[in-house]
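REQUEST FORM: STRUCTURE PREDICTION
Request ID: SP-0412
Submitted by: Lab K.M.
Chain count: 1
Length (residues): 520
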Amino acid sequence: MQTSDPKTEHPFRRVRRAGVPLVAYETGDPWASISACLEGLNGKRESTPAFQWDCLRGLSPLNEAGRSAMTRLTPDGSAFLPTCLAMLNEAGAEASRGDPIRLAPESVIFLHNSQRFVDDPQVIQGLCNLRNALKSIGATVVLLGPGCTLPVEIRDDTITIEEPSPTEVVIDRIIKAGIADAQAAAKEQGIEFPAPDFDHVRDTLLGYRAEFPIDQALALSYTPVGVDMDRLWDLKVKSLRQTAGLDISRPAVNFSDLRGADGAKQFLGLVIRGRTRPHGAFLLDEVEKMTAGATGGDLSGTSQAMMEQFLQWVELRKVQGLLMVGVPGAGKTRTAECTAGEIGGPLLRGSMSAVKGSLVGQSEQNMKNLLRAVDSVCQGAPLMLATCNSLDNLAPELMARFKLGIMFFDYPSEQETADIWAYYMRKYELSGDPPAARNWVGREIESCCHRAWLFNCPLAEAAKTVVPVSVANAARMEALRQSASGRFLSAAKPGPYEFRAASGGGFVLPEATSKRKVTL
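STATUS: Completed
RESULT:
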């Protein structure tokens, strides 16, 4: 009869209770996971023979019961994994026939970095052979690694356990222990080490996959005057940037730095101050380019598999998402950056194209790691923001995942244009009057100001080097704006977007086109 709470007990204990022979254990710290698994043996940590294998040391014992059984099992350690698996299979078969001299019932064997070996045909066959032999005696082989795609031959026979990232409770414990040690060391030197803002430190440390790097990052951030928060953040950024397809930053801007887009600021402000406050922004910039292969262009099926994984994550996590579409350069990415600053959390930029790997299963694993990092950094509450310049190539199932809706970014109005000019003229320390530039978007206005500063010339002169998108892609932009009218939210003001060609921010046909004579 089960007496422990299944919600709090270690998952390895349930695996052992069910007699599972093959387990894939995804972890960022295999040594900590081994210790946790042995602790989950319900008081049998020392009496259960436990072993570990790696490609340098071969098979070695983990406890006293394992040491006493080691000489009977394999004196040389079996550094070659297929040989080790064959030996375990023979010993397991002997034990199942009532001769447990070499391998005792309920033994546990941990295989380090198994993702490097599971594609070897001999390893696959060795694991297949082990299944029945270990099942009959209640023994377990644990495939340790940061994550791997199991070969089809053993996929259905292997139970997967995913080690969760350290929770706030775990991080608090690490912080308290670390600060206590730092204060004790400082006291011996006659220095007062001030206690940091625990909430701030904890939020900065969220995102690591294991406890060890958290402890190391905290230790590297100690200074005589306390915890260096900038160093603590930089260490995490460098660590997370190793995750394929993910970049992380702390925007120094917020809604006060966003000119125009009053509708976007009001709407996103409601989301930020709502019942489920987000803890960070997850940006998919130009999402239509990232997902181009998922609609049928990728014959390998990799893009489709990644898209399926992403859609499932959004649905299962109930991620709140807003899709921002509109004129290129109208402030969609800038809005995402300012939203992250308004939240007071990080901005995580994801790239599905950068996630793709060259090895079989690598892309799916990279995608899983990316989403896991987003979950961890944003404490399970990311605000997903995606930008695109056209909805033509977006799959309907992807658009449906943006449950906050679709928001359209148009050319700025006259007042918005004046505010944008004033903002960037102050930024680049320019004087004088801005040029008459109707239907210029924010990116073009900033580019003009930057060129005036770079070329050391008047704004009017720099404006001659800018060709706005309202001229370069006039017909396409008009069609996009007309198609969005009444269908999407407006970024400029609360409510739906309305196309008005004659407005200050509207589109004007070129002179030659407007005077064209049509004969019916």
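NOTES: The chain is about 45% helix and 10% strand.
Reviewed by: T.R.
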